[in-house]
Specification:
By secondary structure, the chain is of the alpha/beta class. It folds into two domains: about 5-130, Response regulator (Rossmann fold, 3-Layer(aba) Sandwich), CATH 3.40.50; about 165-370, 3-Layer(aba) Sandwich (Rossmann fold). The chain is built from eleven helices and 14 strands. The chain has helices spanning about 15-25, 40-50, 65-75, 90-95, 110-130, 190-200, 220-230, 285-295, 310-320, 335-345, 355-370; strands at about 5-10, 30-40, 55-60, 80-85, 100-105, 180-185, 210, 235, 245-250, 255-260, 265-270, 300, 325, 350. The strands form three sheets. Strands 8-9-7-6-12-13-14 form a seven-stranded parallel sheet, with helices on both faces. α8 (about 285-295) runs parallel beside α9 and α9 (about 310-320) packs across α10. The longest helix has 18 residues, at about 110-130. It is elongated. Residues about 135-165 have low confidence and may be disordered.
């Protein structure tokens, strides 16, 4: 990213006022050039041909073709990195699944909130400009089936309906202690990548804990979305939630989530806290707690994302005897966090996104057989 070339941005939003706000705010960043604006999909198509932008910012609600349908069409005809700018809306995950690199929540509040919004948006535009667009990737709305190794039941096919009751175990009851903890960390590109991986785990998989960089409010919607398409139960974590087989716990946005040991076994501790490695929730915070608490009885997976959050914590996990995996460069939207972890010696094995679940399950079978 060390370059003097400005990132050329086209702003697409139906609000004349907000287009002006975005243009004026982004022009304050010397690394960004706003080359134009568009009020709807038709105008955006013309401006893309005319201006050849590097990155688009895109709203969901627009007259005529909405942002989701426009993005799907764009990715099939003239792929471009897109950063979604949206209010608190569950459709953010549809647009991420359709190919957007990341999103920023529209600002609420005064000048301080607006300044933070532009700081976040500029950072994500710069990341989007170097992101790898996975145009052929399966998504949460794909129809391909992800097979699970026998004897576990096959995962629910990704896609267009809730998991069938017969394919899902009863909700975890917390009976017995999880003998192993699976910890995942991700950032840019992670919502889609996590959906792809978690759908491949059978319903009786050991408990999973996940930190995905995401604002408050969106993590609950993300967990609810995953819960509809995954064989395991998925929920936004609450303080002292037990970690049990068949359950995935997602760190709440704006909170830190770590692993602790209670009377009944492993649980999560969810607290308000300062940023760690620049983030709240932080992957380093999660992985460090797993290294300290579960030691060798853990698997750590670091996935797509910009920066280095998680690398130090994953190294601690490996040093404590955990099995650690990194997503490989070719399958990452942004090969940042896994790259830093690899360079630090934190990763036992680096593998493609579509093999992560199978590798973890193979490790669990080997571990079970070795007991």
């Amino acid at each position: 990213m060390a370059t003097n070339k400005k990132i050329r941005v086209l702003i697409v939003d139906d609000s004349h006022f907000f287009r002006g706000v975005l243009s004026n705010g982004l022009r304050q960043d010397a690394r960004i050039e706003v080359v134009g604006t568009a009020a709807d999909a038709a105008e955006a198509k013309n401006k893309i041909r005319e201006l050849s932008p590097d990155v688009l910012t895109l709203d969901v609600e627009m007259p005529g073709m909405n942002g989701i349908d426009f993005l799907k069409q764009l990715m099939s005809t003239r792929p471009l990195p897109v950063v979604m700018v949206s209010s608190l809306d569950a459709r953010v995950f549809d647009i991420l699944a359709a190919g957007a690199v990341d999103f920023v929540q529209k600002p609420k509040g005064g000048s301080e909130a607006l300044q933070q919004f532009f700081t976040d948006l500029a950072a994500k535009i710069l990341i989007a400009s170097i992101a790898r667009l996975r145009l052929d990737r399966p998504t949460a709305t794909a129809t391909a089936t992800a097979p699970a190794p026998a004897p576990a039941p096959a995962p629910v096919p990704p896609g267009r309906r809730e998991a069938e009751p017969g394919r899902r175990r009863p909700p975890p009851g917390g009976k017995g202690r999880n003998r192993i903890v699976l910890a995942f960390g991700a950032s840019t590109g992670g919502t889609d990548a996590l959906a792809e991986v978690l759908q491949r785990f059978p319903a009786d998989t050991p408990g999973i804990i996940v930190t995905q960089h995401m604002p408050a409010g969106f993590t609950r919607m993300f967990a609810e979305r995953l819960n509809r398409i995954c064989p395991m139960e998925v929920k936004e974590a609450e303080n002292h939630d037990p970690i049990v087989p068949g359950r995935v716990l997602i760190a709440p946005g704006g909170m830190q989530m770590g692993l602790e040991t209670g009377a009944a076994g492993y649980a999560v501790k969810v607290i308000s806290g300062e940023k760690v490695s620049g983030h709240c929730p932080s992957v380093d915070y999660l992985f460090t707690s797993v290294a300290r608490t579960a030691k060798k009885d853990a698997v750590g997976v670091i996935m797509t994302g910009m920066g280095g959050d998680g690398a130090d914590g994953l190294l601690l996990m490996r040093q404590a005897g955990a099995y650690t995996l990194g997503q490989d460069k070719d399958s990452c939207v942004v090969y940042g966090m896994p790259m830093v972890a690899m360079r630090k010696g934190a990763v036992c094995k680096e593998i493609a996104l579509d093999t992560i679940a199978a590798e973890v399950l193979q490790h669990l079978r080997h571990r079970s057989g070795a007991r």
